Amino acid sequence: MPTNPTFYIETLNKQWHKLSTVIKRQSTKQFQQQNLHILTSTKPPTSLQQIIIQINHLLEKTQTLTNLPIETLSKNSLTYTNFSNTVNQLHTVHSTLYNA
C-alpha cells in the first residue's frame, strides 16, 4: 500500500476525470439523440404542447445531471416565428455540453 499522499491525489484525479468524461459523454449523447430528434422528426397529430413537455423533461434531466443552467421551452417556443430560435437554443445547449 503506497504511503505517498501524492499517489492518492493522482489516483483520485484520474478517477474523477474518468467519471467526468462518462457523465459528459452520456449527457451529450442523451441530449443530442433525444431533444433534437423529438423536435425535428415528430409528425402530426402530436400536439406542440406534448412535444414541449417531452423536451422540457429531458432538459430538466440534463440540467440535474450537469448542474448547468438550461432554459426550458415556453409554450410559444414551437410557433412558426420562434421555431428557428428554439432549434438554435437546443444546438447551443448541445454545444455547451459537448465542450464542457
From TrEMBL:
* Listed name of the protein: 12469_t:CDS:1
* Protein source organism: Cetraspora pellucida
Q: What is the lineage of its organism?
A: Eukaryota, Fungi, Fungi incertae sedis, Mucoromycota, Glomeromycotina
